[in-house]
Amino acid sequence: MHFQVVNSASKARTSVGEGAASLEVTVYPNPFSEQVILLLRSGVSQPVVVQAYDAKGRQVGGLYEGQLQAGPEQRVEINGRSWPDGSYFLRVSTPSSNWSGK
Predict the structure, then answer these.
(1) Confidence band (pLDDT; 50, 70, 90) for 22?
(2) Closest Cα partner for 62 from 34, 90, 102, 94?
(3) Would you say 50 and 92 are in contact if contact means Cβ atoms under 8 Å apart?
(4) Is 95 helix (H, G, I), strand (E, B) or coil?
(5) Residues 6+ apart with CB under 8 A from 51
(6) Can you give the pTM of this predicted structure?
């Protein structure tokens, strides 16, 4: 399996949104074969949903749904062992921000 993020570095960190409600997402390793790690950080507590889509836009699965706590980084581990080889898009959604990575 091959997973890519927008930034070609082996570890990509991006921020979306503004102010306290901004969302910081770090994704690694790139590429991955069995597992990818997301580190999520927000200035406010808010619900978060992580979803994955294949290259044809079909949802691979709802990977995580929970509460993102304000401040500390939260780790989400995604098991991709059962996914066929290919490129996948991740979407991280909160009420204040959306982040997508390829």
Answers:
(1) confident
(2) 90
(3) yes
(4) coil
(5) 59, 60, 61, 62, 63, 90, 91, 93
(6) 0.77
Around Cβ 83, how many Cβ atoms within 10 Å? 16
Which of 55, 5, 51 is CA-nearest to residue 30? Answer: 5
CATH topology of domain 12-101: Immunoglobulin-like (2.60.40)
Contact indicator for 97, 46 with CB cutoff of 8 Å: no
Q: Which residues of 1-102 form beta strands (DSSP E)?
A: 12-16, 23-28, 35-42, 46-54, 59-68, 74-79, 88-93, 98-101
Q: What torsion do the CA atoms of 17, 66, 30, 42 make, to the nearest 10 degrees?
A: 30
State how far Cα 30 lies from the chain centre.
12
What is the Cα Rg of the chain in Å?
13
CB 21 within 8 A of CB 49: no
79 or 9, which is more confident?
79
